[in-house]
Design a protein that fits this description.
single chain, alpha+beta, 3-stranded mixed beta sheet, zinc, repressor, nucleotide-binding
Length: about 150
């Protein structure tokens, strides 16, 4: 570790302690060049998911956007806030577990659709109609016909 006083890279660790929560390691170090003592902290760097939008811009993953989208689609439907939050948490966990740190908004939308399809067909239809950009009643009719064939 580089000494903040003299810039030397030679140091020794005098003491190591783990935080009560177990998420941070604190190390007391001493520079072997100038004798200066300093503290460093070590923590796990969280991975951040990036979302590639339809227009190819990239933005940080925002679980709240999933929650808002599902809330709109499930308004006045028998879906609880806890279920909605769980869907968003599950999607984030899935992406991290699979190592998908760059993911398209379309893939996230598909993950939401799959969960809503299982949970509530009306909320699913509402979500799909907005996400897929239905323009008129024909889009709904075609979707419902294809949906009924799959059931």
């Amino acid at each position: 570790m580089k000494c903040p006083k003299c810039g030397s890279l030679n140091d020794k660790v005098l003491e190591t302690r783990q935080s009560k929560e177990g998420v941070v390691i604190k190390r007391r170090r001493e520079c072997l060049n100038c004798g200066y003592r300093f503290t460093t902290y070590e923590r796990i760097e969280e991975e951040h998911i990036e979302v590639i939008k339809k227009n190819n811009t990239v933005e940080p993953f925002n679980k709240e956007k999933i929650i808002r989208g599902i809330l709109l689609a499930s308004k006045n439907r028998p879906i609880t806030q806890e279920q909605i939050k769980q869907i968003a948490d599950d999607i984030e966990k899935y992406l991290l577990d699979e190592g998908k740190l760059k993911v398209s908004s379309a893939e996230i939308g598909d993950l939401v659709k799959n969960r809503l399809k299982e949970l509530d067909p009306v909320s699913y239809l509402r979500f799909v109609s907005v996400f897929d950009g239905f323009e008129d009643i024909k889009d709904f009719e075609e979707f419902i016909k294809s949906f009924e064939k799959k059931i």
